């Protein structure tokens, strides 16, 4: 039967004249049936003659209203509520025209009707049902033939609201496909919906869904709820993954193509979607006031944090933005993105190296920034273990150069982007960032610039993040490498990190070290397992998990506060202020200047870090392999 239907139904869209002819034929049948129903299937002879004289008028009006409402323009296999609305309008306007003609003839001419009002009423209902029913019938035939020709995937949709219905319609519109997705259930937390049906599909509670999962009747779960609580999202996903069900996600509405969701936009759920926390609500008015109309400079502008800072800064309508980075290709990519967004005219992209003291000074004196965000840094722990002098030159000397240039240019506000690896550091990279924190505390009193430090942990999706690495390893078939079974890390999203940096810039008075609430630590082994499951694989069977051991300088658990620090509250519960720690003395600043001229002195860089950062433990120093 399905093969016969597949051969008889056209694979291309039906021409408009065929649709119009079908509509006219169905309307004609409806008025004929209405005539029979009115006279109980025994129509008097004289009524037939009246009906036949009325027939040309009937066809002209029905065809005219169909054309006016463009009923023939709808694609039958994709019939939806908009098509039904147009049909209702066309049929109702036509019926109203019949009634007006009847009234005009009766009152203005011979006191007779063209056709009984009862026939008009029955014909209106019959035509409405016939036109909508024909389209739904064609749509059903396509769904039962073409979509069922390939492998069928049973799908449950979490969310029986409007978004869930839109997701179902997107799957129904997919048309001919080698893999057909068939919606077998909706799942919803609303007890008023549970037990009901949505377009003929059962709505289940979460408990009923878990029992349904155990039957093996679901292959995919689509999460359609747009603003689902992160904890609830994780529970929903965990229940699905426990039964080997792959999880997909409906993207935000602003990502839909031309405001309409398509099946191809329903994507695999990403681990970033599960690590997110409830959004931090900030009052952006004072951030806007601090940035609007200002000249802003951002170092490390092509990096993950730097580029997001620029995107968010531009929202607040600054006078201009100076984007500085030494990486040519990423800077070019950023320029292309800003051009596409139509804001490139407010951004001056400059290839520059923060290690070049004179270049940074000349740039700031010429641009005269009013706020500087210093995000440029070397951050890959294993690489910096092998090249401690390069880490020192960029993270310490580069920070000194940027701050001194800002002070020389009388910049009102300087914001330093630090890291949780600076807390009780065990790596060269972390030690250089801690040294930079202490350095700017020492230099801050030398000028009028407000100096503010921000400190946070790993950023989801940033360059060098563990998540892109795991994703590449999974795509290659494994193994997925984890340094230690117990290693944990803090995570936050790139937009959230940038937003909090801007907030700190607006609220800081100078000298503060702001620490962001990073939520709970995430066990990296659990993260790897979940990423494998989200890819539709089973850890240990489809993808091997390999423990490689901590790399030089890596910590088992990251921290946000030094052992000697305590945190103080601020106006926002998600932003804390670390208590002050001693800044380096004048001799320490002189040591930085002396070491900066001793290019490639790895041993000297390590000695400086050990002496200036008491918390720094160099237990791997004897076995480190230094390269210039």
How would you portray this structure in words?
The protein has 3 domains: 2-144, no CATH class; 150-269, Rossmann fold (3-Layer(aba) Sandwich), CATH 3.40.50.720; 284-623, 3-Layer(aba) Sandwich (Rossmann fold). The chain has a 9-stranded mixed beta sheet with strand order 10-9-8-11-12-13-18-22-21, with helices on both faces. It has a 7-stranded mixed beta sheet with strand order 3-4-2-1-5-6-7, sandwiched between helices. The chain is elongated. The protein is 47% helix and 14% strand. Strand 3 and strand 4 form a beta hairpin. The longest helix is centred in the N-terminal third of the chain and has 29 residues, at 117-145. Helix 2 packs across helix 5 (117-145), helix 15 runs parallel beside helix 16 and helix 16 (428-443) packs across helix 21. It is α/β, with parallel strands linked by helices.
Describe the structure using short key phrases.
628 residues; alpha/beta; seven-stranded mixed beta sheet; 21 helices; 22 strands; 47% helix; disordered N terminus
Task: Give a nutshell description of this structure.
The protein is α/β, with parallel strands linked by helices and 628 residues long.
How are the elements arranged and paired?
Layout: H1 2-8, H2 16-38, H3 45-68, H4 81-108, H5 117-145, E1 151-158, H6 162-172, E2 179-187, E3 197-198, E4 201-204, H7 206-214, E5 220-223, H8 230-242, E6 246-249, E7 267-268, H9 271-275, H10 284-291, E8 295-299, H11 304-315, E9 320-325, H12 328-341, E10 347-351, H13 357-367, E11 371-374, H14 381-386, H15 388-408, E12 413-417, H16 428-443, E13 450-455, E14 458-460, H17 466-475, E15 480-482, E16 488-489, E17 491-493, H18 494-507, E18 513-516, E19 522-523, H19 524-534, E20 545-547, E21 567-569, E22 575-578, H20 586-597, H21 602-612
Parallel strand pairs: 1-2, 1-5, 2-4, 5-6, 8-9, 8-11, 9-10, 11-12, 12-13, 13-18, 14-17, 15-20
Antiparallel strand pairs: 3-4, 6-7, 16-19, 18-22, 21-22
Helix pairs in contact: 1-5, 2-3, 2-5, 3-4, 4-5, 10-18, 11-18, 13-15, 15-16, 15-21, 16-21, 20-21
């Amino acid at each position: 039967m399905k093969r016969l239907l597949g051969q008889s139904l056209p694979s291309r869209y039906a021409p408009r004249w065929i649709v119009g002819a079908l509509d006219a034929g169905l309307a004609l049948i409806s008025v004929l049936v209405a005539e029979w129903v009115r006279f109980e299937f025994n129509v008097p002879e004289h009524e037939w003659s009246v009906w036949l004289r009325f027939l040309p008028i009937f066809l002209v009006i029905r065809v005219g209203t169909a054309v006016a409402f463009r009923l023939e323009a709808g694609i039958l296999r994709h019939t939806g509520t908009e098509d039904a609305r147009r049909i209702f309008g066309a049929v109702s306007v036509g019926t109203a025209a019949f009634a007006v003609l009847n009234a005009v003839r009766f009152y203005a001419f011979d006191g007779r009707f063209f056709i009984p009002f009862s026939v008009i009423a029955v014909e209106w209902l019959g035509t409405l049902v016939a036109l909508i029913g024909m389209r739904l019938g064609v749509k059903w035939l396509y769904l039962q033939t073409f979509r069922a020709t390939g492998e069928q995937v049973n799908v449950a949709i979490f969310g029986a609201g409007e978004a869930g219905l839109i997701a179902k319609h997107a799957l129904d519109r997919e048309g001919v496909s080698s893999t057909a997705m068939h919606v077998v259930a909706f799942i919803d937390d609303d007890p008023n919906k549970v037990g009901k049906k949505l377009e003929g599909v059962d709505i289940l509670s979460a408990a009923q869904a878990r029992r349904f999962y155990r039957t093996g009747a679901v292959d995919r779960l689509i999460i359609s709820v747009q603003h689902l609580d992160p904890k609830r999202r994780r529970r929903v996903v965990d229940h699905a993954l426990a039964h080997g069900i792959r999880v997909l996600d409906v993207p935000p509405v602003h990502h839909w193509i031309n405001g309409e969701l398509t099946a191809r936009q329903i994507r695999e759920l990403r681990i970033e979607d599960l690590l997110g926390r409830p959004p931090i609500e900030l009052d952006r008015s004072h951030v806007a006031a601090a940035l609007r109309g200002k000249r802003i400079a951002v170092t490390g502008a092509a990096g993950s944090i730097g580029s997001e800072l620029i995107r968010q800064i531009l929202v607040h309508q600054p006078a201009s933005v100076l984007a500085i980075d030494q990486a040519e290709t990423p800077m070019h990519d950023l320029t292309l993105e800003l051009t596409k967004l139509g804001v490139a005219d407010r951004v001056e992209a400059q290839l520059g190296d923060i290690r070049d003291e004179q270049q940074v000074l000349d740039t700031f004196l010429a641009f005269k920034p009013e706020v500087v965000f210093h995000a440029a840094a070397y951050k890959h722990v294993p690489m910096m273990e092998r090249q401690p002098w390069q880490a020192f030159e960029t993270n310490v000397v580069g920070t000194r150069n940027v701050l001194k240039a800002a002070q020389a240019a009388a910049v009102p506000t300087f914001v330093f982007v630090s890291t949780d690896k600076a807390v009780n550091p065990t790596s060269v990279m972390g030690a250089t960032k801690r040294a930079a924190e202490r350095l700017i505390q020492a230099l801050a009193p030398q000028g009028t610039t407000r100096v503010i430090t921000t400190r946070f942990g790993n950023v989801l999706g940033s360059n060098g993040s563990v998540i892109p690495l795991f994703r590449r390893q999974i795509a290659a078939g494994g193994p997925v490498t984890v340094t230690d079974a117990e290693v944990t890390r803090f995570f936050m999203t790139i937009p959230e990190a940038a937003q909090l940096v801007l907030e700190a810039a607006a609220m800081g008075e100078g000298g503060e070290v702001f620490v962001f609430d990073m939520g709970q630590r995430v066990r990296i082994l659990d993260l790897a397992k979940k990423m494998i499951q989200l890819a539709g694989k089973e850890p240990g069977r489809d993808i091997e998990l390999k423990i490689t051991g901590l790399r030089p300088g890596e910590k088992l658990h990251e921290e946000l506060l030094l052992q000697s620090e305590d945190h103080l509250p601020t106006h926002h519960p998600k932003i804390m202020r670390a208590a002050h720690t001693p800044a380096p003395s004048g001799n320490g600043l002189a040591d930085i200047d002396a070491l900066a001229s001793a290019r490639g002195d790895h041993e000297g860089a390590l000695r400086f870090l050990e002496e200036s950062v008491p918390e720094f433990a160099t237990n791997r120093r004897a076995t480190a392999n230094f390269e210039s």
